Amino acid sequence: MARVIIDPRSDRPVYKQVADDLRRRITSGEFAPGDSIPSEKEMEGYYGVGRTTARQSVALLRAEGLVITEHGRGTYVRPRLPVRRLSGERYRADRDQIGDGQPPATSFTKDQGIGWSEYRLDRTFTEIPATPELAELLAVPEGTPILERRFTFHTVDGPQQMSTSCYPLELVAGTPVADPANEPWPGGNLAQLATLGITVTKVTERVRARMPMPDEMAALDIPAGVPVITVTRVMLAGERPVEAAVDIVIPADRVELNYTIDLD
């Protein structure tokens, strides 16, 4: 790697100029995922900067989620993980499970392109009173008993998604749906509700982006600088809300939204 000229008289701080060059090399593929980037000492020679400036440059790239620093390994380009594509069609995989003879699947396994044996689900079920947000989403009075189900979805590549899915307790109390031992359930919520005689006819979703909470970073192995996509979902049977997810949380570098707007 040849020495790069840095302009100390530029309005752009020197450490950002160094980061600009390293970022360009990463995005161009010169430094591939998993490759080490120059050490702080090597940067001193390449860019003619001091150790503190080199450290600031690396910190900026780390905050952007481009590199990872590990003790004993140094700093390297963050590996690219498989991207999950979310579309409005994905719940059809859940609906198809309601019929007989289908291999076990959910919309998550279909999106990930994995088999049932490659899918693992951590779960915690708790009975709670409806918060103001849940009361609004489920169209029930505040304080109504709710079955809150917290899930972390895993593939062979590690944790991929978190969600907090809630049912009005009156719908599921005393049924197999309320037993965490029955998770994961082929067909997910649609198939669960179908066993109770409830047919989901519409799903609404609200998508936002934000930075992850500390517990989300830990649970989903999200490096610094990577935001998350959050999906607030409501499932309806006719006009009645029967399930609400607040929120579905997915690292933004592992998902893309894929949808079609039909103007006919």
Give a concise summary.
With 264 residues, the chain is α+β, with helices and mostly antiparallel strands.
Unreliable stretches: none
Number of strands: 10
Helix/strand order, N-terminal first: HHHEEEHHEHEEHHEHEEE
Number of domains: 2
CATH architecture of the largest domain: 3-Layer(aba) Sandwich
The CATH homology group name of the largest domain: Chorismate lyase-like
Question: Based on helices, strands and strand pairing, what is the structural class?
Answer: alpha+beta
Main beta sheet strand tally, sense and closure:
6 strands, antiparallel
Q: Report strand %.
A: 25-35%
Write down the CATH topology of the largest domain: Chorismate lyase
How would you describe what is shown here?
The chain has a 6-stranded antiparallel sheet with strand order 4-5-6-9-8-7. A two-stranded antiparallel sheet has the order 1-2. Strands 3-10 form a two-stranded parallel sheet. Helix content is 27%, strand content 29%. With 264 residues, the protein is an alpha+beta fold. It has 9 helices and 10 strands. The chain has helices at residues 14-27, 40-47, 51-63, 92-96, 107-112, 132-138, 169-172, 188-195, 214-220, and strands spanning 67-70, 74-77, 84-86, 120-129, 145-155, 158-168, 202-210, 228-237, 240-251, 255-257. It has 2 domains: 14-77, Winged helix-like DNA-binding domain superfamily/Winged helix DNA-binding domain (Arc Repressor Mutant, subunit A); 84-257, Chorismate lyase (3-Layer(aba) Sandwich), CATH 3.40.1410.10.
